[in-house]
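Comment thread on ticket #2218

A.B. wrote:
> Attaching the input chain for the structure job we discussed in standup.
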Amino acid sequence: MNKGNEENGRPLIMDLGSTTWRVLVTLIGLKTFIGPRDLARHMDLSSPSVALYHLEKLIELELLEKSVHGEYKIHPKADIGFLDNFLFIKEKIIPRTVFYAVFFTGIFVFYMFTVSFSFGVHNVFALVLGTLGCSFLWAEVYRIWHGFV
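C.D. wrote:
> Ran it. Output below, let me know if you need it in another format.
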């Protein structure tokens, strides 16, 4: 399988255009074979030939496999391991970091509303640590989401 682009050291998948990327994410979410006509209809592409162009592009990169009936599916040996940090719900891609950020922010907010605040060293430490931790997690969510989605 293609491990990466030799020219810049990045994974080959990072050089996909936005429509090809959307096609790939859609196919990952569908987890089943789909033909160009159905894909074009599903993604609201202008024509089945546009869908076929992007599907063939992904075939060349060895990310898809084609059935004898002319339908396409993610290749079982496709090098998309870096997408393990994402959840695919239908055709939506969600970074796993979102769940960590929501969980720790919830705990921090719960702490802030249940503990009476004083300027003791423990409360100030918890406030600073909670604020910084949640801020870093949400910044990472933002960076990941806008880098891939």
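A.B. wrote:
> Thanks. Noting for the ticket: The mean pLDDT is 84.
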